[in-house]
Amino acid sequence: MSGIDSLPPLREVIAEHGLSARKSLGQNFLLDLNLTAKIARSAGDLTGCDVLEIGPGPGGLTRGLLAMGARRVVAIEKDTRCLPALQEIAEAYPGRLEVISGDALQIDWAAHLNGPIRVCANLPYNVGTELLVRWLTPETWPPLWQSLTLMFQREVAERIVASPGSKAYGRLALLAQWRAEARIVMDLPARAFTPPPKVNSAVVHVTALPEPRFPAPAEGLSKVVAAAFNQRRKMLRSSLKGFAPEIEAKLEAAGIDPTARAETVSLERFCALARCLKAT
Ligand code: SAM
Could you tell me the pTM of the whole model? Predict the structure, then answer.
């Protein structure tokens, strides 16, 4: 018994199934079920929601999500060694856990879930930002999900919630704040994980807004901010010159000084620029 459910403690699960952590899969496990239940609680009211979890591993967060009342959890795991341990959780919560074996970057998760949908995950660090950008950039809004509650390295979490002018401000902040609200809800020291990573972590909670703060084409905005911050010390007329032959005029039409650097430009101006570029 573990305190939150009738299943064995995670150290026993890991030992029984031989789940030694693999660095190549970003495996830093959370073994404290009180902590995983706390993360699940920070995702909001899960009752009546389907929850998407990426990378359940031995299932600590999965158990937290189920114990906190998620209607169903759909969990995508790449490491097949974890499947027997996850199967035991599925048996303890009949009909409420679907485990999909595979790569989260390749799987059409939406086909497995019914709304309302929340996403909650202790993400593998090597695919975390790619998944976040995909969740933030569907062409139509509101998205299929209501909220994302995600563990990142602290430095990445700071980039998601950063304000213009700060060192951390860039593509992630712009995409997260364009159509959603993002805040850091929990800090976790490296020692909370087994094995401990080199850096501290934080949980970010992202809530989808009903509509974007400013209109813009999703793909165009994503591309333009990626290029602008890829060379963040350069003037925008130079870092964005590949976007249009008359880029200076486009920048001016969007209300941006062509000699400005990306980190000083607001979300509203970047959205205006993405609209001007689309109109060409
Ligand atoms: N959720 C568990 C926990 O909190 O203890 C494990 C988190 S661990 C940081 C990341 C998990 O993601 C590992 O179980 C790893 O095998 C899995 N993973 C890595 N790459 C993946 C991918 N592309 N698709 C799905 N799962 C992946």
Answer: 0.96
DSSP class of residue 18?
T
- pLDDT, tens digit, for every residue of 31-54? 999 999 999 999 999 999 999 999
**Same-domain check for residues 76 and 166:** yes
pLDDT > 90 in the chain, percent:
95
Q: How far apart are CA 61 and CA 38, in angstroms?
A: 9
Q: Which two tokens stand for residue 207?
A: 């809530």
195 & 238 share domain: no
The total domain count for the chain is 2
Locate the ligand 1 atom nearest the alpha carbon of residue 79 and give its number: 16
- Residue 64 CA to residue 34 CA, distance in Å, equals 8
Ligand 1 binding site (Cβ under 6 Å of any ligand atom): 25-30, 54-57, 60-61, 76-79, 82, 103-105, 122, 124, 127
Residues 247 and 204 in one domain: no
Tens digit of each residue's pLDDT (9 = 90 or more) over 106-118:
999 999 999 999 9
